[in-house]
Amino acid sequence: MYILIVGAGKVGWNLARELGEKANEVIVIESSRRRYEVVEEELEHSIQYGDGTELWVLERAGIERADLVIAVTGDDEDNMLICQMAREKYGVERVVSRCNNPRNLQHFELLGVKPAVSATDLILRLIEHEVPKYGLVHLLDLKEERLEIIEMEVAEGAEADGRMVRDLNLPDGSLVISILRDGGGFVPTGDSVVHSGDEVLLVLDIGLEESVTERFAGRAAPAA
Amino acid sequence: MFVLVVGCGRVGSAIAKSMLAEGHEVSVLDENPEAIALLNRGLDQSWEDLGGSYTVGTALEIDALLAAGIEQADAFVASTDGDNTNLVIAQIAQRRFDIERVVVRVLDPGRAKWYAQQGLQIVCPTQTAIELLEAAVRGDVAVEGVIS
């Protein structure tokens, strides 16, 4: 597989190492002369010096025959345009982009650049997952399918506390798929009883989040 | 009409001033609070006293674009000093805010040409200079004064 990486920062350099070891053909483009010289000592002919948003630089690196283009510069606009041109101008089938500022994810989406990976966003999600008091955790968002899987802790005194799953009165389009309790988990039946302190996993249609979560939150839930 | 100019350098500030002088409503967005000096320069009154607006913010922040009035804009000018920033915000203006008249300044002729083919209205000063200079060298045009 021929892989073109734009940006030889920490991410780009390490990706080039890992992917190069897996018998791929890898070329990295770096626009800073100093950085280029440092990385060139190790990567040698696998790195080229130039501005990876310029067409001739991309073409010199053989973008037309690339199977995968990875844009990991520190500049979101650059990453967006590199991936947009790779896909639309050069017909590259797969692109992966780094998103430095998670607020820019919407722009990546608007320009049809996906997947865009945001380290900040990933860490925020991990924090949500590791810190249960944070409340609701999005485990998976299936945007195109318009479904999401969420995890919630059942608060003491919540409407759901002590009820059987069938009596939860959940809206259509939502389903409890697991209950996590005492370090284990199980797939509930309609008879399973939900207790405070349980973590419940639900799959639901996008838009139902509020009406579902209020059943598991405390009566006088403090603002998160 | 309502014109939103993003990027208040030599180009953006000049466009903003002439549009305001022509009686249009003009809003300018730039990340540098000092850049308003370019708008005030050479005017009898300040830019804001003359009815122009100025917002400090980053072009890619939706909140900044909203504060600068992008939802009311009839025309959008992308004139920051970054080609890639201009090409991204122009597409945001076109696709997300449905602004019909979006004009973009792009210095690199390569990207300018391809994005023009994708339906953006692009002005490429480099390409314009190349063509004019070539014509002047051939003697096809006589350049008098400064063509800028």
Question: How does this structure look, described?
Answer:
The complex is a heterodimer of chains A (224) and B (148). Chain A folds into two domains: 2-120, NAD(P)-binding Rossmann-like Domain (Rossmann fold, 3-Layer(aba) Sandwich); 131-213, Alpha-Beta Plaits (2-Layer Sandwich). The model of chain A has no long low-confidence stretch (mean pLDDT 89). Chain A has helices at residues 10-21, 33-43, 55-60, 76-88, 105-110, 119-130, 209-213; strands at residues 2-6, 25-30, 47-49, 68-71, 94-98, 116-117, 137-142, 147-153, 174-181, 184-186, 199-205. Chain A has seven helices and eleven strands. Chain A has a six-stranded parallel sheet with strand order 3-2-1-4-5-6, sandwiched between helices. Chain A has a five-stranded antiparallel sheet with strand order 7-8-11-9-10. Helices cover 29% and strands 25% of the residues of chain A. With 148 residues, chain B is an alpha/beta fold. Chain B has one domain (2-138): 3-Layer(aba) Sandwich (Rossmann fold), CATH 3.40.50.720. The mean pLDDT of chain B is 94. Classes of the chains: A alpha/beta (224), B alpha/beta (148). Chains A and B meet through helix 4 and helix 5 of A and helix 4 and helix 5 of B.
Write the layout of secondary structure elements.
The complex is a heterodimer of chains A (224) and B (148).
Chain A (H helix, E strand, L loop, with lengths): L1 E5 L3 H12 L3 E6 L2 H11 L3 E3 L5 H6 L7 E4 L4 H13 L5 E5 L6 H6 L5 E2 L1 H12 L6 E6 L4 E7 L20 E8 L2 E3 L12 E7 L3 H5 L11
Parallel strand pairs in A: 1-2, 1-4, 2-3, 4-5, 5-6
Antiparallel strand pairs in A: 7-8, 8-11, 9-10, 9-11
Chain B lengths: L1 E5 L3 H12 L3 E6 L5 H5 L12 E4 L5 H6 L7 E4 L4 H14 L4 E5 L3 H9 L3 E3 L1 H14 L10
Parallel strand pairs in B: 1-2, 1-4, 2-3, 4-5, 5-6
